[in-house]
Amino acid sequence: MRSPPPRVGSSLNDVALPSDGEDTIQSISWSPVAEYLAAASWDNKVRIYDVAQSGSAQGVSALCAEGPVFSCDWAKDGKKVIAGGADKKIRIMDVSTGQQDIVGSHEAPVRGVRFVDVPGTEGSIIMSGSWDKTIKFWDIRQQGAAIASLPCGERVYSLDAKADLAVIATADLFIHLVDLKNPTTFLSKVKSPIRYQTKAVAAFPDGKGWATTSIEGRCGMNAVDEENARGINFTFRCHREIDEPNKLIKIWAINDVQFHPVHTSVFATGGSDGSFCFWDRIAHSRLKSYFPSATPPSAVGGTHNARPASITATSFSRDGSFYAYALGYDWSRGAVGNTPQIETKIMLHRVTEEDARLKSAGRGTDDTDKNR
């Protein structure tokens, strides 16, 4: 069964942020209270941008680390930014004053950091995940000592937290779930719905499920509660293309997945193929695809022109009006793919109604390999 041609949108009006970044951007995070954007980079910095409604932006400040920074996040009040990376430390910066401190550290590089809401605690709690195979929780008022530590058994590759749910993906293809009402133990540990290396996980905005992406151009949705699994669980293929002359299927890694904060059934994926796509989780449908660093295929089965850049990180703004994505090199094509033509930059896409809502009732998914 051949699926219909995808809806392709134009990225010509997307705006580039001013940047002096010198290496791949690994993480992007929007402030929950203002149009401020944080971007963590392999050049040892987290840059903060003030974004105007027009899409223009200016740099405000930067958090500096002693190695590549892999993850960043904002406090719920928008006053502080945290970061973790190769120097094994969890750093925090007051955005208004620029003051920087170290909250805690791991025994190996820190792969992910998030501010989380833990009922019954005062102040801000930080969750961090590391290649030392642990998840730790930190109270920023008690610098240096974790208030809880959970052994994961393998390296943490990705993590996220929304509502009362924290989801952690590890190198052994397991997904660990934590109920933040009781962060001293795992709620459950389940096998990843995808057979190949996990690239990213994202919790549903209501905390009732999560998304998983992999290096194999596949994305999965899963419910926390088994009784809801039938209506939520499925996987599907995306960020793939068919090279007709050579009869080859090109498969690209899905580097990031993010849910829209208002239209919560809508999510976006960004891949090594240099494209990002908007999807409707409930309708099992692709809404629109964008190819900012490549010429899109004329129809399904066609091939893209060679693309110089991958999408390495993405994030929706607090009201979902902007979708930020980073273009750069993710080493998915080895050293030979890292050419001087690749430019590291952050782009802002203004989210339209077509991006965030399904327009034609009853339209099926563009990718027919879905498993419910």
TrEMBL record:
<dbReference type="Pfam" id="PF00400">
    <property type="entry name" value="WD40"/>
</dbReference>
<feature type="repeat" description="WD">
    <location>
        <begin position="18"/>
        <end position="51"/>
    </location>
</feature>
<dbReference type="InterPro" id="IPR019775">
    <property type="entry name" value="WD40_repeat_CS"/>
</dbReference>
<protein>
    <submittedName>
        <fullName>Uncharacterized protein</fullName>
    </submittedName>
</protein>
<dbReference type="InterPro" id="IPR015943">
    <property type="entry name" value="WD40/YVTN_repeat-like_dom_sf"/>
</dbReference>
<dbReference type="InterPro" id="IPR036322">
    <property type="entry name" value="WD40_repeat_dom_sf"/>
</dbReference>
<dbReference type="InterPro" id="IPR020472">
    <property type="entry name" value="WD40_PAC1"/>
</dbReference>
<keyword id="KW-0853">WD repeat</keyword>
<dbReference type="InterPro" id="IPR001680">
    <property type="entry name" value="WD40_rpt"/>
</dbReference>
<feature type="repeat" description="WD">
    <location>
        <begin position="103"/>
        <end position="148"/>
    </location>
</feature>
<keyword id="KW-0677">Repeat</keyword>
